[in-house]
Amino acid sequence: MSSTELTTSPSELADGTPASEAPVPLITRFDELSLRPEVLESVRAAGFEKPTPIQALFIPKALTGHDVMGQAKTGTGKTAAFLLPAFNRLEPGQGNPAVLILAPTRELALQIHGEIERLGKGLGFSSITLYGGSSYEPQIDALTRGVDIVVGTPGRIMDHIRSRRLDLSGVKVAVLDEADRMLDLGFRKDIEYILRHCPSNRQTLLLSATIPDDILKLAKRFMHDPEEVWTAPESLTVDKVEQFYVSVEREDKFPLLLKILDSERPSLAIVFCATKLGAKKLAGKLKNYKLNAREIHGDLVQSKREKIMGHFRTGKVQLLIATDVASRGIDVQDISHIVNYDVPYKIEDYVHRIGRTGRMEKTGKAFTFVTREEAPYLTEIEILINREIVPIKFDSLNSLFWPNPPAELPAEFLGEDRETDIGAGDYVDKEEDEGGRRKGGHSRQRGGGGRSERSRERGGHARPAQAAPPAAGSSGAAAGAEAEPQGEGSRRRRSRGRRSTGAPVEITCSACGKQTTVPFKPNPNRPVYCDACYTAMKPARQAAPSTKEQPASEQPNP
Description:
The chain is of the alpha/beta class. It folds into three domains: about 5-235, P-loop containing nucleotide triphosphate hydrolases (Rossmann fold), CATH 3.40.50.300; about 235-415, 3-Layer(aba) Sandwich (Rossmann fold); about 465-558, no CATH class. It contains 19 helices and 17 strands. The chain has an eight-stranded mixed beta sheet with strand order 1-8-2-7-6-3-5-4, sandwiched between helices. The chain has a seven-stranded parallel beta sheet with strand order 11-12-10-13-14-9-15, sandwiched between helices. Helix 2 runs parallel beside helix 3, helix 3 packs across helix 4 (about 105-120) and helix 6 crosses helix 8. It starts with 6 loop residues before the first strand and ends in a 15-residue tail after the last helix.
């Protein structure tokens, strides 16, 4: 069965053939979907030519008013699959929200809101996006004026309900998008709380890339005899994505990534890491090599995340270093490559990761780095996707970037985003995580042990700051400037040009990429080397007496 052959609920047909084995003829034109003329015109104005398979099967069932549960991989047009039936059924200007859409992350919520504006243009529906990490005032103002459609993350929506700012008594359609991810993030009780505040006679639409038992239990509790739309198991992966894996030692992951970047020359790529700290460190190392990389994870404030995503969509940022949670809702059509720098903790996340490329019938490539300990996970992934992932090997990890980075990058790697490093103020310091869920009283900032900023400045046992990469475009693969401590006092000191001395500062060697420490703040406009590389480069320095670099252990404080 091909990836476009979807099946309805796996019940038995009249001739005894299981429905899961019987292809369903797909509708090929939107005018076959019984949409109202104004909705159909809006679809055409948005540039939609023909329905995708999930749209062709899901929309007719949703138009009947019945509850519908659908399994749909990312990049298949599932947002329009639930928006068009809602547009077709409802009239704008009712005052209270008539449509509620729950999403696991703020990125996905914003993506859905963008689709509402694109598909609903001219229909007169008003909408608002509610998510954590953003200001309450605009959300409260919009809710006070009245909106037709509410999109948001469970944590913030539940907050508005408890504060009696959001009245869901008029909801006619409730949508759970990427329900599997919401459950993974621990939103089950939030979802149950929210749905209990919606009318019992509402229509509930649920879409998910995978349908585990937890989803079925949720559907059984909050949906009324839902009709089902399932993809065939083999279409869980994107058929147009070439999938490879590389066996690698953990310490060789970074040069392997550089090797793939050199050989593939991706136009836009996402590199997935398992943790926020891992994403931050990897982005810093790539920027040390003057590559145009930015990280996106839950510790960034929303405005910074949106700015990075805007630059990624336009190609100003070519390499996005992401965690699984932060990547949800990334809807960029021209991503050419996915690199799983770390194997996902949950094998189902592999499907979501590679689904970021090969979208809407485009092609893409996915590379997964597998260490010896992670080999069993690779087998589980292959069982899940019902496909063998192709192994590849490299004779050498040497590349354009490794072990010696070039003085100038090829044109393919020259993006336009040359902003400086993310500062302390760009990280979330609210008691909210993805989707606005409360975290209790724990600070999101690392280090410091809860001591005041002033006590750290007085010479307490502060942790050494990690070296930040230089501003892109500086000469050489320079090690970065010392990370600034947080607080108003540090900003005043920085403005006067003072630099810390004495405490070890982590750097990445400009030649071999090895991480070491120096007892001073390196000059961001000059390369810096570990002792071993400095010794190896001694003949070249003697031949060029104007060279000023000194070994990491001897170089004076600028």
